[in-house]
Amino acid sequence: MTRIGAIACGLLLWMAMAAGAHPLAPALFEVRELGDGEVGVRWKRSLLSPSGVDLLPELPAHCTPSGEPRGERDATSSTLVWRARCPGTGLAGETLLVRGLEGSGIDVLVRVVLSDGRVVRAVLSDGAATTRIPERAEPLSVVGDYTALGVEHILSGPDHLLFVLALLLLVRGRRRLVWTVTAFTVGHSITLSLAVLGFVRFPSGLIEVAIAASIFVLAVELTRPEGAGLRSRPWILAGGFGLLHGLGFAGALSQAGLPAEEIPLSLFAFNVGIESGQLLFVFAVLALRFALQGALARVPGWLHRVPAYAIGSLAAYWCFERAALALGFS
Length: 330
Description:
Helix content: 40-55%
Structural class: alpha+beta
Oligomer: single chain
């Protein structure tokens, strides 16, 4: 921990600024053809989204609302449901738009169910606020969209990055680090796949609390003497908690699911994005450690414990905040 302590303090300051929750909080824009020119629309926003961001989904210009929208709300999201008339030959070839994405930091998962049963999906973000509805999802588009979503999910998630940072502080030695990061990767890849494919289901609010608790456990381990407790086998912690974090990663896909024609490809692409973003973060921390190793060697001894207590305090805050949200308190 002596080599990375000062770096960790700087990163913790950045993470504290985003301490509210996972900032990605993707929205869902779902449009379903119902027949006779009528479509059903569902617009779902996470309650964890940044405040002050006003997103507005828009159907093609020839569509007109029919009836008042109906509002729904649960512990983690708010939803508007309404119907519209879209006369003509259908939605294929038309364009969907979400206004207000510029600078929001939020992705929108678009899901269109056509009357013939085909399902089209896309990911909208800052700089790409529109999507044209094709006949089917193109494989290259699926790979690009879901890889980018995976990278953004991990790099914009202070909770996941804080867990990885804590692992870097916990582990000494290159071989142990490789085994530990690999165990975390294997763990979250397993549960990510199982959750997205519908084999396992857990309440998302409970998972978010458990993820914060996993970071707190790592912080406690950082205060133990070298070789004590699970510090001697960090890959056990990484693999076990990786299973938990995989359920959290699945939350970025659960609202919209996967393209029916490209399920294995899109799941693989999203996982590749997660791993790519994770490795970028690990390499960045290690590069900073190497560049500053001379200065870090002169850091006072008392400062070496600061990262552990800072991580534990931030994780405890997340635990209480997310528990309150899961219980319906806001």
